[in-house]
Amino acid sequence: MIKVSVPNMNVVPIVVKPVFEELGYEFIAPPKMSRKTIEEGAKYAPEFACFPLKAVLGDFILASRKGAEYLVIFGGTGPCRFGWYGSTLQIILKNLGIPAKVFVLDFPTEKWARDTFSILGINGSSVKKLIHSGLIALKKLRLIELAQELARKIRPFEVKIGESDKTLQKIYKIVDNENSFIRLMKMKNEIKLMFEGINKNSNHELIRIGLVGELYMCLQEELNMWTESKLGKLGAFVDRSAIGLWKYVTGDIGLNFAHRRAKRIAYPWLKWHAGGESIYSIGYSLIFERKGYDGVVHISPLGCMPEIVAQTIMEKCVNIPILNLVFDEHTGETGVNTRLEAFCDLLKLRKE
Amino acid sequence: MVYYHSIMKIGIPRAGLYYQFFPLWDTFFKELGFEVVYSPPTNASLLKKGLEYAHSDICFPMKVNFGHVYWLKDKVDVLFVPRFISLEEKKYMCPKFMGLPDMLKASISNLPPLLDVNFNIRKKPFIRSWIEVGKRLRVSANKVKKALVKAEISQKSYQWNNLNGGDGLKIGIVARPYIIYDKYVSAELIDRLKEKGMNILTADNLIPEIINKEIAILKKPIYFDFGEKNVGTALHFLNSGEVDGFLYLISFECGPDSLLKEIIDDRARTSDIPYTTLVLDEHTEIAGILTRVEAFLDMIEYKSKTKFNL
Ligand code: SF4
Ligand code: SF4
Predict the structure, then answer these.
(1) What is the ipTM of this complex?
(2) Mutate to test the interface with B, among A104, A263, A272 (most CBs of B within 10 A)
(3) Domains of chain B, CATH where assigned
(4) pTM listed for this prediction
C-alpha cells in the first residue's frame, strides 16, 4: 500500500484520514508538531520563506522518515505564496535526497486535474466511496469545530484550569477512531455532555476578544503558542468566528454569508481582497468593534504579505485595542505570554 | 470632486511600476494635456519618510514607494497610484501592490485624491482601465484611446537597458524593475559596472521567446507577475552561458522572490555559470554590496582565466 501523509494544520490529519484510507492508501499522520518540526523545517527552507512553509517542510521531512511516499498539499494559483509551496517543497526535498513525492492538489489546467485524479486512483468506480468518505470527513470536521467552540466558551470559567483542553484532546481521539457515519451523527450530544461536565464558576466578568489573522497560524496552536487557549485561561472569551477550516472551505467558494458580510464591511478600507485573509482580518475586526468587543488579537507569520496590508489598514480603521502577534521560528513562548497577559490586563482596566 | 481642467497637476511617484511603465504613463498624461510631476529619484531623505510612514515589516521597495508618495502629496492635485492586480493573463501582482492605494490612504493623512483605478487584465483589458482613469479626469474615451496609441508606441520603443557592446565581461542582472532600475535601491550597480567597461544584460534585453522556452520546463506555471520573466532570464543565463556570470537582486522580505529563488538555486547547482544573490534592504551599506560584487567579479575573472589557460 502506498503511504501518504499531509501537513499538520490543526485537525486536518484527522479529517482527511478516512478519505485516503477509503482510496486504498495507508495514511501516515505526521508527528505532532513540536520544536523539532520547526527546527528541521527552518534549517532547510529558504530563509525568507513564510513561517508556514517552514513548518510544513518540517512536517514533510518527519513524515517521510516515517515512510510516507506521497506528501499531499493543497495548491492554488495566487495571489499569495501558498500556491507555490508545493513546487518549492519538492525542490527542497529532492536536494535533501528524500525520495518522497510532493503531491499538489491543484487544478491549474485540465490535464493537470486529470493526472491528479488518475494518480490518486480516482475513477468512476471509486466516486461513490469517495463521496461516502468525504461525508465522514466533513462530519468529523464539524464535530471537532463544535468541540473547539464549546471549549472557547468554557475556558474562562473553568475551575480546574486546563480541563477543557484535556477534554478537547480526548474528543480528538474519539473522533479520530470512529469511522461509522451513523455513530458520528450521534456524537454531537456526547460532546456537549462532556463539556457540560466541566466544573465552572460563573461569577467573574468576561473580557471579549476577537481573533483574526492568517489562517494557518491561527489554527496551528503549536506555532501560535496556544494563544487562543491562553487567552481563555486569562479570563477572556475568544471569538474565532473569523477563522476556521469549515469557514475557509465555504468562504472560498463564496457560500459563507458571514465572510461576505465581513468583506462588505471592510470594502471602504480595502477595495480589493489582497489574498490570504487580508480583507477578512479587517472586516471581522470592524465587526468585533461594532459588537462592543474589548479588543482584537491579530496573528500572522513574519513577512506575511496579505497580513501586512491588513495590519497597516487596521491600525487606522479599528478603534479598539489590537495586539499584533507576529511569529517565526525564533519567537519565544515567554515573550508571548507576557504580551498576552499585559493585553488582557489592559482590556480589563479599560473596562472598569 | 476636485477635478477641474487640463492644467491639473498629476503626481507620479518614481517608484514601483513607474520603472516598468514610465514611457507609457508620461506620454499618456502629457498627450491629454496634463502637467505631470514626478518625485525625484530615490534618495536618503525620501526613504526616511517612507520608513516613517510604512509598516516596519513591509519590503524595502514598498517603503521607498511610501516615501515618494509623501514627497508628492502637497505638490499635486491628484496622485496616480493605480491598484495593480494582474499585468498578465493568469498572473497576479504581489498582494502588497493590490493593497497599496488603501495602505497609503490609511497611513498618510492629507493625501490628494488617488487615481486608484484597478489594472486587472484577468477581468478587463487595460484600455478599459485607462478609460476609467480618463473618466475620473473628465476626459472623453475617444481622447483616451488616441493618447493611448501614442503612449504605447513610446513604451515599445523605450530602451530600458542599453547594451554598450565592448569586449569587457558580460554580466547579467536579474531583479524586479523597481529594484534594478532604481539607482538608489540597487546601489547604482548597472552604472558602476558599465563604467568599468562591462556589458550588462537584463531581462529587458531578451526576447520573450527565449524566456518562454526556459520557463516551459516548469511543471506548474509561475503565477506571480515578473516571476516568469525573472526566473526565465536566470535560467537562460545558466543554460546558455550567454553571460560570464549574473547577479540576482532581491529585496529583503520579498514574498514571491523568496520562493522563486529556489528554482534558480536548484538549477545553479549543476551549472558552472557563477551566480550570486544580493539581498537588499534599507540597512544595506553600499560599501557592503560593492565588496560582495567585487569578490564576485574576481571569481569570474579567475574562472575565465583558468578557462583560457586550458
Ligand atoms: S498568506 Fe502569508 S503565510 Fe500564507 S502564503 Fe501568503 S505570505 Fe505566506
Ligand atoms: S514583489 Fe516583493 S519586492 Fe515587490 S512589493 Fe511584493 S514583496 Fe515587495
Answers:
(1) 0.92
(2) A272
(3) 9-157 (3.40.50.11890), 170-309 (3.40.50.11900)
(4) 0.93
